[in-house]
Every structure is written in structure tokens, then in C-alpha cells.
């Protein structure tokens, strides 16, 4: 039996699918992606995530660039917070598994520089349709 070539290269499609399924099975909800390993990365990444979240919520009155956030975190906690990691941590905080926070961003002036600044806000509580049925007065 001959397999059709993969559009991703010379690997047969069957091998590409098996690789993708392996990666998908290793990625679990509430983690930091397919290469995340709880025993190797859990304490470090969750600890940094909590520090980023706490700092951003405490300073939510103002917008800050990634470099400003990095500098403040490194000064406060005396450990490295690489800018790409900060960007990923902020994206994660928007996800339900990480708290459904609101991440606002805007261009720092002058906008032509292409420099973005961010502010993290607590999630807005939502009322579910079913919950709303039970909040009314009973007759």
C-alpha cells in the first residue's frame, strides 16, 4: 500500500498524522502547550505566571510596554522574565484555564513607532442563562 506524500514535506501523510496526534495527546488543558511537562516545568512556570498576574493586576491603573513589565518584575523578584515569555503569560491569562482576565492593549504614542502597551484587568463576572432563571423572586 502506497501512501500519498504530505504537503508538509517528504514524510508520508500517515506519519505526519501520527506525529500530530502524539503532540495533541501530550498537550493538556490548563497547561502551557505541547512541550509542557508538569514534573519539569510546573512549579517554575506556574510560579512565574502567578507573579506576572499579581504584578499586572496591582498596576492595572496604567498601561505598560513589555519591556517596562519585564524590568519591574526582574527588579521585584530578582529573576529573569524574558519578553517573549511575558507575552505568552499575558496571552494565557486571557484563557478560561488561566482566569479569563481582560487584557487591554493600545499603541503607545506616537503610534508610528509600533510599540504596544498592556493593562490586565480582573475578569467580569457573567451570569449564566440557567443561573439567571433562579435569581428572580419566587411567586
Descriptive report:
The chain is mainly alpha-helical. It has a domain at 45-123: Arc Repressor Mutant, subunit A (Orthogonal Bundle), CATH 1.10.10. Helix content is 46%, strand content 10%. The protein contains 5 helices and 3 strands. The chain has a 3-stranded antiparallel sheet. Strand 2 (102-107) and strand 3 form a beta hairpin. The longest helix has 21 residues, at 38-58. Mean pLDDT is 80; it is low at 16-29.
Main-sheet strand order equals: 1-3-2
CATH topology of the domain at 45-123: Arc Repressor Mutant, subunit A
Question: Given this structure, which CATH class of the domain at 45-123 is correct?
Answer: Mainly Alpha
> Oligomer, anyone?
single chain
Rg: 21 Å
The overall pLDDT average reads 80
Q: Keywords for this structure?
A:
single chain, 139 residues, mainly alpha, Arc Repressor Mutant, subunit A, 3-stranded antiparallel β-sheet, 3 strands, 46% helix, 10% strand
Brief summary:
This protein has helices at residues 13-26, 38-58, 66-77, 83-94, 129-133; strands spanning 64-65, 102-107, 116-121. It is mainly α and 139 residues long. Helix 2 packs across helix 4 (83-94).
Can you lay out the helices and strands and say which pair or pack?
Elements (H helix, E strand, L loop, with lengths): L12 H14 L11 H21 L5 E2 H12 L5 H12 L7 E6 L8 E6 L7 H5 L6
Antiparallel strand pairs: 1-3, 2-3
Helix pairs in contact: 2-4
Amino acid at each position: 500500500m502506497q501512501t500519498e506524500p504530505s504537503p508538509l514535506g517528504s514524510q508520508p501523510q500517515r506519519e505526519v498524522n501520527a506525529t500530530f496526534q502524539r503532540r495533541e495527546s501530550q498537550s493538556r488543558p490548563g497547561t502551557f502547550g505541547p512541550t509542557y511537562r508538569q514534573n519539569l516545568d510546573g512549579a517554575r512556570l506556574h510560579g512565574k505566571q502567578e507573579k506576572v498576574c499579581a504584578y499586572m493586576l496591582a498596576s492595572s491603573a496604567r498601561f505598560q510596554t513589555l519591556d517596562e513589565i519585564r524590568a519591574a518584575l526582574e527588579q521585584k523578584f530578582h529573576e529573569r522574565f524574558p519578553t517573549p515569555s511575558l507575552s505568552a503569560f499575558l496571552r494565557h491569562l486571557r484563557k478560561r484555564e488561566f482566569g479569563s482576565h481582560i487584557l487591554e492593549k493600545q499603541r503607545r504614542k506616537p503610534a508610528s513607532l509600533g510599540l504596544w502597551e498592556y493593562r490586565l484587568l480582573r475578569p467580569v463576572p457573567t451570569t449564566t442563562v440557567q443561573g439567571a432563571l433562579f435569581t428572580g423572586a419566587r411567586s
